[in-house]
Design a protein that fits this description.
single chain; FAD; Crypto/Photolyase_FAD-like_sf; globular; 5 strands; 485 residues; mainly alpha; Deoxyribodipyrimidine photo-lyase
Length: 485
């Protein structure tokens, strides 16, 4: 009589910010292990460096998980949803399924690293295989070092070192099938997590602009490479032009890997689009630089990278902060950006710099207030890029913009939205104003305002601060700082 062969124990595939099948190294390891694969997503309250996901990104996560569930169904698999402390959840799943291995892709925020390190140690101490893989970045933050063996503190040398390190590895394809276990563990329902806003449904217009999920991300890459990238180097600065990739929210939750995006640009790198490709690739590598900073300075979200700014004389003014958040500053390009953020969970990159400069330098409000607002309202909120970019504008970050670079919001609007199309889209009360005054409603003659149906202070606010005065105040505040590193 033949003794039955014992079925290999399953492997738990732990999804995090890698909600895709393509170019997923942990998934590849699980699929080729010869074991049944149990995909799981754990909702971990408060585990990441930046705290729980913001409201806008929770909206995205709901739809992204739904898309991932559908994709896994196509492989003969399913997604198990659980919530709670990650180690506790994994240990319970191991007990329920008799799994003897857990695999995941690494994350690079400080608290996430700490949690993963503890989990790996705890699982291995119980004889459970626990393996992690790269793939969320084009480089591991420990890899690139200066000639002196230190981490990079300025972007241009980092970019050069990245270029000289060779092309990133080619992305790997998604598996065609996953071996299913004989019995699936129980799963939460996605609806039970209540991640979609209802009363009020402030995300009602998100779907006008976004379709979460891996399939949408791959389609967006194709559309960008076939079209908008041809105008990227110049057009990316003009918020009324469709010249950006709109891939940031897909990257933020790992619906597409940076290696897949980089690979998509390879066929263009040697033709007439080279300048546009290089400019776009530099933006991908800026994201890498932000993670490089976060990895080596874990308090990037809460502390100044340059401690010279620790004594900066910030003002605390809730009324001004609220006016900025609501897009009621009296500066059209600033208000358009803040309203675009609320309406679509996203803001054009050039306008992000303008609105950040206004909060920090015109209003003298601590950059951490802006970082927190963006973190909650952006669908592409990223623990490294959000903090690093706010510190860049504030002058306190690595390779930061000099503090004395203070954007004039009127001139910025006239330069990058010369016809006022962007402002008219998001500040409709100014839609009938002549282009000459679209960024200067305060200077518009009474008859011009009347024809446009505008009464300043009633239909549209007067400026909450005089820019010329605010600029001098900001420079004086900066000059008061003692020398630092």
């Amino acid at each position: 009589m033949t003794t039955p062969t014992k079925e290999p124990s399953p492997v738990l595939l732990w999804f995090r910010k890698d909600l895709r099948l393509d170019d997923n190294h942990a998934l590849q390891a699980a699929a080729t292990s010869g074991r049944a694969v149990i995909p799981v997503y754990i909702r971990e309250p408060g585990v990441t460096e930046r705290g729980p996901l913001g409201g806008a990104q929770e909206w995205w996560l709901h739809h992204s998980l739904a898309a991932l569930q559908t994709a896994l169904d196509g492989l003969g698999s399913r997604l198990i949803l659980r919530q709670g402390n990650a180690l506790t959840v994994l240990e319970k799943l191991i007990e329920e399924t008799k799994a003897e291995a857990v695999v995941w892709n690494r994350r690079y925020d400080p608290a996430g690293i700490d949690v993963d390190t503890q989990i790996k140690k705890a699982l291995r101490s119980k004889g459970i295989e626990a393996n992690s893989f790269a793939g969320q970045l084009l480089h591991e933050p420990t890899r690139l070092r200066t000639g002196a063996g230190d981490h990079y503190k300025t972007y241009t040398p980092f970019w050069r070192a990245f270029e000289q390190s060779g092309e990133p590895p080619f992305p790997i394809e998604a598996p065609a099938k996953l071996l299913a276990p004989g019995r699936w563990p129980q799963s939460d329902t996605l609806a039970s997590w209540s991640m979609l806003p209802t009363k009020p449904n402030w995300a009602s217009e998100f779907t006008d602009m976004w379709k979460p999920g891996e399939a949408a991300a791959q389609e967006k890459v194709k559309d960008f490479i076939d079209g908008a990238i041809d105008d990227y180097a110049v057009g990316r600065d003009f918020p009324d032009r469709p010249a950006t990739s709109l891939l940031s929210p897909h990257l933020a939750l790992g619906e597409i890997s940076p290696a897949r995006i980089w690979h998509a640009t390879r066929r263009l790198a040697d033709n007439i689009a080279k300048d546009n490709v290089v400019r776009f690739r530099k933006e991908l590598v800026w994201r890498e630089f932000c993670y490089h900073q976060l990895f080596h300075f874990p308090k990037l979200r809460t502390e100044n990278w340059n401690d010279r700014y620790d004594d900066f004389p910030w003002l605390s003014d809730t009324k001004l902060l609220t006016s900025w958040q609501r897009g009621q500053t009296g500066y059209p390009i600033v208000d358009a950006g803040m309203r675009q953020l609320w309406r679509h969970g996203w803001m054009h990159n050039r306008v992000r710099m303008i609105t950040a400069s206004f909060l920090i330098k015109d209003l003298l409000i601590d950059w951490r207030n802006g970082e927190a607002w963006f973190r909650d309202t952006l669908v592409d909120a990223d623990p490294a890029a959000n903090a690093a970019n706010w510190q860049w504008v504030a002058g306190s970050g690595a390779d930061a913009s000099p503090f004395f670079r203070i954007f004039n919001p009127v001139l910025q609007g006239e330069k990058f939205d010369p016809d006022g199309g962007y402002v008219r889209t998001f500040v409709p009360e100014l839609s009938k104003l002549d282009s000459k005054y679209i960024h200067r409603p305060l200077e518009a003659p009474d008859d011009v305002l009347k024809r446009a149906g505008i009464e300043l202070g009633k239909h549209y606010p007067r400026p909450i601060v005089d820019h010329a005065m605010a600029r001098q105040r900001a420079l004086a505040a900066h000059a008061s700082l003692k020398d630092g590193r």
